[in-house]
Amino acid sequence: MRPLNPKGWGAIAALVFLVAVVLAAAITASRHAKAPAPNSAAGDQLSAELSRCRGLGEQAETDPGCKATWEEARRHFFGEDQKAGRP
User: Fold this and answer.
1) Tens-place pLDDT, residues 1-15
2) Would the pTM of this model clear 0.85, i.e. be above it?
3) Is residue 52 domain-shared with residue 69, that is, in the same domain?
């Protein structure tokens, strides 16, 4: 068995770096996969209310229920409803 030359050490270093990157990506993906699923009942209710507001047309602009629903939809879209529980 002969000793490794600098080119061989470089190949080993590149392989170790590649394995580290793949491992870091897998850990990050698994952390995102464990995020709590949104409540489907609340999502269905929000969807139904948004549909009702769409059906109102221009009258929805003055409807307080539609304004509250749109605000809730914005909070949900931007993830502010999940951030509220975090320190």
Assistant:
1) 688 898 999 999 999
2) no
3) yes
Q: Which residues of 21-59 are buried (b: 16+ CB within 10 A; e: fewer)?
A: eeeeeeeeeeeeeeeeeeeeeeeeebeebbeebeeeeee
Its domain, for residue 54, covers: 36-87
Q: What is the CA radius of gyration of the chain?
A: 25
Query: Is 21 in the same domain as 52?
Result: no
**Residue 35 carries which DSSP code?**
S
Q: Are residues 58 and 82 in the same domain?
A: yes
- Written as six digits, the tokens of 26 are 């897998």
Per-residue pLDDT, averaged over 13-23, amounts to 97
Tens of pLDDT, residue by residue over 34-68, are: 555 555 666 688 888 899 998 988 888 998 999 99
